[in-house]
Automatic annotation (TrEMBL):
InterPro entries, per the entry: PfkB_dom, Ribokinase-like
SUPFAM superfamilies named in the record: Ribokinase-like
Domain Carbohydrate kinase PfkB: 1-43
Protein's UniProt name: Carbohydrate kinase PfkB domain-containing protein
Pfam families: PfkB
Length: 61
């Protein structure tokens, strides 16, 4: 599914921005959740969906 790759990339980006491993993990879980919902990269290509889901999870982008 690529969820692990997506998680790793999202974690590193957020950690670079915040230096907070907990917030980075929460963000990475949110982003990686899209990778298991649809085949290929279709699930992770919509930034608006990411913003909505992160907001519902209480994650600041």
């Amino acid at each position: 599914t690529g969820a692990g790759d997506v998680f790793a990339a999202a974690f590193l980006v957020k950690y670079y921005q915040t230096d907070d491993p907990v917030e980075s993990s929460r963000f990475a879980n949110c982003v990686a959740s899209f990778a298991v919902e649809e085949k290929g990269t279709a699930g992770i290509s919509d930034f608006d969906r990411l913003i909505k889901r992160a907001s519902l999870m209480g994650i600041d982008l």
